[in-house]
Design a protein that fits this description.
The chain has 293 residues and is of the alpha/beta class. The protein is built from nine helices and eleven strands. Helix content is 30%, strand content 16%. Strand 5, helix 5 and strand 6 form a beta-alpha-beta unit.
Length: 293
């Protein structure tokens, strides 16, 4: 019965067979309910990217070159594994562009060793996949890592990549259903921070769904985790303080973490979801502040 009613997605539960208004209100309510376990986790192992998309959520087009430390990643994975008793439905390793990380294979091994039963995806724009060594493909096979490319409207020989994955027996699935025409969404920032945090949290597709890990801290959505890139480039001061994340080394248990993730944070005042738009044409970033505000 429950399986017919609910569809678990990274953005939360969606109630089927009801009209859209009830569905919208139901989703908003569920954001405020702690998850029964940590269902979905994103780890941005690089800040920078080699594609530079307009409206990029982690602000990669304007980010400085940066890599997640292997030592810190190992510590963070071990701590989360301990807190969660190794229970995690899905882990997505992304960026930026994760294939830019010089120690990517080591990170993939660490992730699998700490979460042996978790679905692990490596999310990539695929540009560097044809250049990967055989050891990369073998690691993905041996450690059960699914390669999940997003198809952008750029020239890439996907058939060759698919053949390579098949050769090594690597799981391979497209992030947007294999559609070539990647579309963008625009989730604008309110640079003055005048929005109601509770209302914005309720409206947000990310809130309590796109949980992000960054150097020992968990965030309920991508923006407070990545706003450092925006602040540095545009010399703004959108404030992130201790109320906007939870430190996994200070949290007593997973229940404390799940309760934190299910409530609005002060940073929500910087998101203006009243101006949110979907299905925008994919374009490269011009690194203009208007792309995010």
């Amino acid at each position: 019965m429950l399986k017919r009613l609910f569809n678990l997605t990274p953005a939360g539960y969606k109630l089927k067979a009801l009209d859209s208004k009830i569905n919208q209100n139901f989703n908003a309510t569920l954001k405020f309910i702690p998850q029964p376990m940590l269902q979905y986790l994103e780890v941005y192992i690089t800040e920078h990217c080699n594609l530079n998309c307009k409206h990029c959520a982690p602000f990669s087009p304007i980010a400085k070159k940066s890599f997640y430390s292997v030592e810190i990643f190992k510590n963070d994975m071990e701590r989360l594994s301990l807190l969660s008793n190794r229970l995690l439905c899905k882990l997505r390793i992304l960026g930026g562009e994760p294939l830019l990380h010089p120690e990517l294979e080591q990170l993939l091994k660490i992730a699998r060793e700490n979460f042996p039963n978790t679905s692990i995806d490596l999310v990539t724009n695929a540009i560097l996949l044809p250049k990967q060594k055989d050891s990369f493909w073998q690691t993905c096979k041996d450690y059960d890592i699914a390669i999940t490319p997003t198809k952008y409207p750029i020239k890439i020989d996907f058939q060759t990549i698919e053949n390579k994955a098949k050769q090594f027996g690597v799981k391979y699935k497209y992030n947007n259903g294999g559609e070539v025409e990647k579309r963008l969404f625009y989730q604008p920032l309110d640079l003055l921070g005048t929005q109601n945090p509770v209302i914005m949290f309720a409206k947000c597709a990310w809130a309590n769904g796109c949980i992000g890990l960054d150097n020992g801290k968990l965030y309920t959505c991508p923006y407070p985790r990545s706003i450092k890139n925006f602040n540095t480039y545009f010399k703004t001061n959108l404030i992130v303080d201790k109320r906007d994340y939870i430190d996994i080394y200070e949290a007593k248990n997973m229940d404390e973490i799940l309760r934190f993730l299910a409530k609005p944070i002060p940073f929500c005042r910087y998101c203006d979801l009243n101006r949110l738009t979907w299905d925008n044409k994919w374009e490269r970033s011009k690194k203009d502040i208007s792309e995010w505000s």
